[in-house]
Write a sequence for this structure.
């Protein structure tokens, strides 16, 4: 089976959240991420466990994974309306369409621990992150090197999951995120040239610009995923 990197997962979600209801998205996730870990051990994912989106259980541990869209359009954010309304609706929709392709999707642990928020929820509700994946990835990088971040607590709760990939480079390589980091994988390439990790300490400011041809997504992830020929 080949992965169609242009497929909009809203097409088979029947008007519902594609992260939960697109069967194509779930199949793509299972095929892409069921592969050997940096240790060489298999990380096979299954969708046969009741109540679990994707599930892995082995000597490595038990992991419940969920899908998360990582390219926010901000078109439904009330606080962003004054910015989004300056863009043509056709452009907003074009960007949303890109965001619902496989290059705009990730998996994270989906089970709540101690009744506390999951990574998906925490990165969306933390205003210093505001659902931005580049800032989320910076928090993950800091987790691996033992540095503080706005998501430090929630990432620590799921440390067994991140330990599967050994280090930040292992995580980046496993999830095909190479174009979101610098050469050598020592730093994150932030989506805005004018915004850097200082945003992890202060609220961001936004300008109404968006590059549809080069969206804030992992473009090489799209290409690599498509070339797998799964």
């Amino acid at each position: 089976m080949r992965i169609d990197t242009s497929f909009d997962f809203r097409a088979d979600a029947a008007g519902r959240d594609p992260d939960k209801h697109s069967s194509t998205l779930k199949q793509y996730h299972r095929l892409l991420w069921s592969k050997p870990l940096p240790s060489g051990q298999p990380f096979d994912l299954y969708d046969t466990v009741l109540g679990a989106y994707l599930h892995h259980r082995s000597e490595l541990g038990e992991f419940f994974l969920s899908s998360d869209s990582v390219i926010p359009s901000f078109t439904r954010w009330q606080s962003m309306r004054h910015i989004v309304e300056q863009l043509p609706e056709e452009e907003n929709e074009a960007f949303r369409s890109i965001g619902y392709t496989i290059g705009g999707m990730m998996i994270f642990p989906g089970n709540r621990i101690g009744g506390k928020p999951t990574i998906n929820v925490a990165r969306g509700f933390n205003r210093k992150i505001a659902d931005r994946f580049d800032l989320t990835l910076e928090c993950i990088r800091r987790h691996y090197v033992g540095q503080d971040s706005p998501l430090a607590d929630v990432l620590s709760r799921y440390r067994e999951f991140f330990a599967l990939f050994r280090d930040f480079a292992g995580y980046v390589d496993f999830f095909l995120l190479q174009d979101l980091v610098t050469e050598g994988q020592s730093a994150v390439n932030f989506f805005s040239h004018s915004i850097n990790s200082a945003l992890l300490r202060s609220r961001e400011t936004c300008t109404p610009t968006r590059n549809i041809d080069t969206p804030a997504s992992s473009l090489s992830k799209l290409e690599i995923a498509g070339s797998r020929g799964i």
Notes: The chain has a mean pLDDT of 86. The first strand starts at residue 35 and ends at 36. The chain has one domain: 9-227.
